[in-house]
From TrEMBL:
Protein name: BAHD acyltransferase
Lineage: Eukaryota, Viridiplantae, Streptophyta, Embryophyta, Tracheophyta
Gene3D superfamilies: Chloramphenicol acetyltransferase-like domain
Membrane-spanning parts: none
GO terms of molecular function: acyltransferase activity
Alphabetically ordered keywords of this record: Acyltransferase, Transferase
């Protein structure tokens, strides 16, 4: 009988930027788009296989991750601050949270049959935590498997960052960890184009809150042939070249509509909204390294 996979937290600490934030950068304005997003964390889990599991090597890797995280935070200084009144970030170098964990399993075993409930435990905080609006903006969890494999779970407050921002940060952090240096210069100009508004007179809580409901998460894998078949099936005169996202979104939406009708006995109106990156769709364009919620 296969043993139950468990994750044990062995260490939790605060990582501050390697250099203090200059006085003239101590206050960072949120953009209007930042103000309006949901109070959640944007999550990502990265997996790194390894065949070496010595304790000394694990300690070395953990130390290296913390050191490079500290250096990366210097370039992404707002991530080490705290949001105030949903208007700006006080860049006081309070730091990011670093969690170290141990997993009593092989990384290959987990990846062969991913357990979505276990996957959540590889993240340093719950995605829907209200801390995203008032607490730590950047949290990292390094989970070391018995084989030496590593899972790095990153949570970044959606109040400051979209998926593109998270990707930009990880690229810089990875390059710093490997000692490669980096040429990515984050752009913090979003608030100059979309200045924040003071919503205090309209609502005591300016942030958009997400209603917590009971959810079931399932994983469906579409291989190459099935994806091509699905795209061919949904191709029409009005949509001659559907993307993979459009094809899968349409399938899930259609299934959800049918399930709703079976449950309630009536057909209900529904709508799907797809976010897009507006960096290249505005004039003048935003740099691809722009930080913030540049989606529409």
């Amino acid at each position: 009988m296969a043993r139950e996979m468990k994750i044990e937290i062995v260490k939790k600490e605060t990582i501050k930027p390697s250099a203090p934030t200059p006085h003239n950068l101590k206050s960072f304005k949120l953009s209007l788009l930042d103000q309006l997003v949901l109070v959640v964390y944007g999550p990502m889990v990265l997996f790194y296989p390894s065949n070496v599991s010595e304790v000394t090597l694990t300690e070395k890797r953990s130390h290296q991750l913390k050191k490079s995280l500290s250096e990366a935070l210097t370039h992404f200084y707002p991530l080490a601050g705290r949001i105030k009144d949903n208007l700006f970030i006080k860049c006081n170098d309070e730091g990011a949270v670093y969690v170290e964990a141990r997993v009593n399993a092989l990384l290959s075993s987990f990846l062969d049959q991913p357990n979505l409930e276990i996957l959540k435990l590889l993240l340093p905080i719950k995605v829907e935590s209200p801390e995203a609006a008032t607490g730590c903006l950047q949290l990292v969890q390094a989970s070391f498997f018995e084989c030496g494999g590593l899972a790095i779970g990153v949570c970044m407050s959606h109040k400051l960052a979209d998926a593109s921002t998270l990707s930009t940060f990880i690229k810089v952090w990875a390059a710093t960890t490997l000692g490669l240096g980096h040429t990515v210069v984050p752009d913090f100009s979003a608030a100059t184009r979309y200045p924040p508004r003071d919503f205090s007179a309209q609502s005591p809580a300016a942030a958009v809150e997400m209603k917590i409901v009971k959810c079931v998460t399932k994983r469906f894998v579409f291989d190459g042939p099935k994806m091509r078949a699905l795209k061919a099936k949904v191709t029409s005169g009005s949509v001659q070249r559907p993307t993979r996202v459009e094809a899968v979104t349409g399938l899930i939406w259609n299934c959800a509509r049918k399930a709703s009708k079976l449950s309630s006995g009536i057909s209900k109106l529904s709508m799907v909204s797809q976010s897009i990156n507006i960096c290249k769709r505005v004039v003048p364009q935003f740099p691809q390294t722009s930080i913030g919620n540049l989606v529409g």
